[in-house]
Amino acid sequence: MIAIENLHKSFDGVEVLKGASLEVRDGEVVALIGPSGEGKSVLLKHVAGLMRPDSGRIVFNGKDLWNLQRADLVALRNRFGFLFQNGALFDSMTVYDNVAFPLREKTRLNEKDVRERVLSELEQVGLTGADDKYPAQLSGGMAKRAALARALVRSPEIMLFDEPTTGLDPIIVHSIHALIADTHKRLGFSGIVVSHAIPAVFSFVQKVAVLYGGVIRFVGTPQEIFKTDDTIVRDFIRGSLPTDAFRFGEPVPAEANVQERQEGTV
C-alpha cells in the first residue's frame, strides 16, 4: 500500500531524515517509534503529502506521490484520514460540525445523509450526546475521540496518527488504543501510528518501526522487538518502559499494568 523509499529531508542545513525507508502493507498498521526529535512527525507529514522530500519517494500502490497530476493527487489525499497530535478541532464549531466538516467540504451528501454519518461515527467513538458541545467543553480523551471521528467519517483507506494519546492518563491511553483497534477491524485501513506510548501501542499494531539517526533502524513485530540484538533499539525500548514493565525478562502488557494499578497491586 505505502512504500517510503530512501527519504531525505533537511531543515536549515540540518539533515533530519537520512535515507529512511519503510513499507506498510495493505490493511497493516505500523507503530513508528523512536527518541524525541528524530523526525517521526516529519516522516508522517511526508506520507500525507504535507511536505516534499529533498530526495527519495513516497509510493502508493506503485505510484510516486509527487509525480501525480494534481487531480490524481487530490483523489489520493481524499483516501486519507489524519489524526493530528493536538486533535486540531475547530474551536468555533461544535463536535457535530467538526465531524461533519470533511463531508460538507469533500462530498455531495445532502444534510440528512451527513447527519446520519456524523451521528453514527460519534456513536462508534463513544460520544453519543456530545454532538452539541464545543471543544473547550471536552476532556482530553473526549477531544481525541472527536478528532478521531472526524478523521474516520469518510471511511479512509489510509490512516495516519500523530501521537494520538499525548497528554492522556494510562487508562484513557488504553481506551484510545482499543478504539483505534476496533475501527481498524471495522474499516480495514492501512496506517502509521507515531507514538511514545511504549509498550501500550504494541497491543494493536502488526509491525513496529524504529526511527533513529535519520533512518529506520528496526522493523519487526511487537514480539520481535523485545528479542532484537540491536543494542540501541533494545536500550531505547527498555528505557521507554515503566520500571515495573519487565518481570523475569519478559515485557508485561500495558493493560496489565493499568489493571494492577487500579487494583492497588503495583
Walk me through the structure:
- The chain is α/β, with parallel strands linked by helices.
- It has 2 domains: 1-79 and 158-241, 3-Layer(aba) Sandwich (Rossmann fold); 87-155, no CATH class.
- 36% of the residues lie in helices and 24% in strands.
- It contains 9 helices and 12 strands.
- Helix 3 packs across helix 4 and helix 3 runs parallel beside helix 5.
- The longest helix has 18 residues, at 170-187.
Number of strands: 12
In percent, how much strand structure appears in the residues?
15-25%
Calculate Rg over CA atoms.
19 Å
Q: Total helix count? A: 9
Spans of at least 5 consecutive residues with low confidence: 243-266
Major beta sheet summary: 6 strands, mixed
Domain module tally: 2
CATH superfamily of the largest domain: P-loop containing nucleotide triphosphate hydrolases
The average pLDDT value, as a whole number, equals 87
Strand-pairing-aware structural class: alpha/beta
User: How much helix, percentage-wise, in residues?
Assistant: 25-40%
The rough form would be described as globular
Assembly type = single chain
Regarding CATH, which class of the largest domain?
Alpha Beta
Major β-sheet strand ordering: 6-7-8-3-9-10
Q: Ends: how far apart?
A: 42 Å
CATH architecture call of the largest domain: 3-Layer(aba) Sandwich
N-to-C series of helices and strands: EEEHEEHEHHHEHEEEHHEEH
Fill in the CATH topology of the largest domain: Rossmann fold
